[in-house]
Amino acid sequence: MEKREYTISVLTEDKPGLLNKLTIILSRRKININSLNVSTTEVKGVSRFTIVATATKIDLEKVVKQIRKLVDVLGSFLYEEDQIYYQEIALYKLSLEVFQQNGLLEKLIRQHGAKIIAIEDNQIVIEKTGTKQETHELYEVLEPYDILEFARSGRVAISKSKRRTEAFIHELETSQSNTLSIKEF
Amino acid sequence: MEALIENPGKVVEAERISGSEAILRCLINEEVETIFGYPGGAIMPVYDALFDYENQLRHILVRHEQGAIHAAQGYARNSGKVGVCFATSGPGATNLITGITDAQIDSTPIVCITGQVASHLLGSDAFQETDIIGISMPVTKWNFQVTKPEEIPEALAKAFYIAQSGRPGPVLIDITKDAQQQSFDFIYKRCERIRSYQPYPELREEPLKAAAALINQAKKPYLLFGQGVTLSGAEDELKRFVEKTGIPSASTLLGLSAFSTKHPLYVGYTGMHGNYGPNVKTNECDVFIAIGMRFDDRVTGDVTTYAKQAKVIHIELDPAEIDKNILTDVAIIGDAKQVLKALLPLVNKNSHQQWLAEFRACDKIEMDKAVQKSLEPKSKLMTMAEVVHKLSEKTKGKSVIVTDVGQHQMMAGRYYQFDELKSHITSGGLGTMGFCLPAAIGAKIGTPERQVIAIIGDGGFQMTIQELGVIMQYQIGVKILILNNSFLGMVRQWQQLFFDKRYAFTEMDNPDFIKISEGYRIPAQRVQERNHLDEAFNKWLNQEGSSLLEVVVEKEENVFPMVPSGSCVSKIRLE
Q1: Range 45-104 of A in CB contact (< 8 A) with B
Q2: Is the keyword Transferase assigned to this protein (chain A) (predicted)?
């Protein structure tokens, strides 16, 4: 089966040590993490881990179920690219002198939808938000001008699903899955 | 003092006590009776508090922390209660890891409480400091570090809830020494819900109906049950289901004793050294019903050739087990008892005599080619198979059999005719040598009314031999049977079959086990001759309290049938 890039989105309680518990489930299967981002959500006390990894869908489906088993995990979801809205942010640092010598640069930056966020100490910092491909394209454009430093964030993603996180949590809080019930059909 | 309603009908007042005392009070609230442990610096305040609770909590001092955890496992597996361990920080905690891992893979409810250095020393490489939370992360169902006494009641309440609900497993709570020493207002409330933890997903109707339809149409149905049946107490439901549907039924290694081996629809146990019929018929059945098992590779062999012709129904509580190793046609996520109760009215009364006869024909082949050679050997010394077979007859299949890992374990699974529920305790998933002796001690403490027999090889016995001290000190009436072939037999068998008989470091010079046993004041005898076995059994079993019997067995006996590792189950070797 073909390996592809997938996004795993995990909703968790905001507890220390969870990052470790989560990532060892991937490393156990020798799955390399392309990027990882941890953030708060719109629900207080709930965190979101967004993990991008390249593997087969079958393997990642197993991983997602094993992540769901962790006691402090509220929900764990596997997404293909078309099931989510996602972005990454990239920062590029250039020398101010080089920038000023090349009048074209400002136009290029604008064309790429990037912006200048700092000019200080003879340096200029450019910010670009987009997909990995888009931030990479700008990287290639700036490369001849001697990039002093480059950093790219992990992916942040939200699903296209209409489910609200709050409603999802409420369902968990009121479900009857906390005890065993025997019923007949 | 503030009065709070704890459990319905019970009013409890907050009391100012130390963290250490609080730990013990939590255990009492959870109806814990026995603790297996070993003291040390970072858990000394708890031990000091325990001195005053001797009448309410029985502490068994083991001889090594590995003994504590295995004893807790044996205790839990047999009694159905949570096994509890105490250990100190550093080496005390790390010595628990093998058993915790074993409990995780074999789904045993355990709560381990480890002492930790004082919170201000965390991360400083203090004396006997280790990051046991980090170390135990991949092998616990849940773990948590307590650094303030106020956290103790909730942490322990969650620990007991998590350990025993859903698919059971081990939980470790690490408690810093300062949290043990400080006082706080103690109130205990049992945990009934954790929103991020849903141990019993709602049973859905559609898969039940789909499964029933498949079962009702099946011409050659085959059922394989695992430990999930024992864990959910579904033995009676399983029996009624099997009897109504008339389906030939087999057990996994850990499922043994959940269903009587004497039942006419029981067709044996499956897996690498299981019976011929259930292995071969796996690849001939049309509907395969798996209940409370996880398709371990020792059961399936090569997954790409496993039950490919069959519609597979997988009944399992842990959603992560569905489609993990074997793709299923119908998955029913639920507790075995819950599912079987719901499924029973949906299936038709049926009988599959002709199909069952095919299993019996396989039994005949196995008997002729493998069993007979093992039970009526030409060798001068006895075989493990015949010793276990005779033990089974002698005890009428009614004893609790605890085994270690290796050839004797497979022989016990094959030749002990289990006829009583909850009678088989072994280290299945992890295959931990040294498991047996402490697990048997725990099992005997958990069910003192039953006869508990530890069947151990000479190799595994020496891995936790020090626990004889526990038997001596607390007079635990465990019957110990050493099957001594002076070899690490299973490895030797593989060397013979797959490594050109290059017996690399598997032969053992053993000490005098009789003298060792007697040194621990446990009566012991050795038997070598076949015609003395019966008499030796009588003496050994009738002796009051613990006693040890060493049987010197054939050095190079092999366990057959055998599905070589990674092979197709229908290519099982009979000799």
Answers
A1: 61-62, 65-66, 68-69, 71-74
A2: yes
